[in-house]
UniProtKB/TrEMBL annotation:
GO molecular function: DNA binding; DNA-binding transcription factor activity
The name this protein goes by in its record: DNA-binding GntR family transcriptional regulator
Coiled coil: none
Transmembrane portions of the chain: none
Amino acid sequence: MAGQTDQALATLRQGILTGTFPPGARYTETELATLLGMSRTPVREAMQAVAAAGLASVTPRRGMTVSALSAEDMAEIYEVLTALESAAAARLAALDPRDLAPLEAALAAMEHALSMGDRDAWAEADAAFHRSLMEQAGNTRMAEAAARYTDQVHRARMLTLHLRPEPVHSVRDHAELLTAIRSNDPERAHAVHSAHRQRASEMLQDVIRRHHLPRL
């Protein structure tokens, strides 16, 4: 059953992140079981898991409603993530030894995706970079706290991916952050990442305003 639950969770999560299950949409347990071709038990467990990640809400006898986040919600989420990830960046810069290979691989993937004009691949590599940053910083509780919000930010990014400017500055920010970490400069790492996340938040707010997107 665990394998089916994991499969159901992966399908639901991916569907929510990509907009297949759009913001505000409601699905009963039976409807989702039919869509996923599974029994209701693993689907029920997967619904609870996506709710715990902040991607949906689950109401007894009414099913799952995909979370719809306002511009104000996203501003608050970015504020929390900026604090957590910037602290993680500073922590990682001060660690010795540390494993930077996952960050280097993610940055290389971002640069390649940008050169190919593949925004979807860039977004996946960007998410991998941020995930690796939290994992390599060595604070499990900090990583767990950030994980609740990273999927929500990734979904907003995917839903607005082709409404944004080309992510040239974002790739440069990540390269600058990695340089600061390699140089064992916690203050610089914190400052670079904080500025990066603040710019990303402001860009999202601008996209929401210009395209009149009430909810994501």
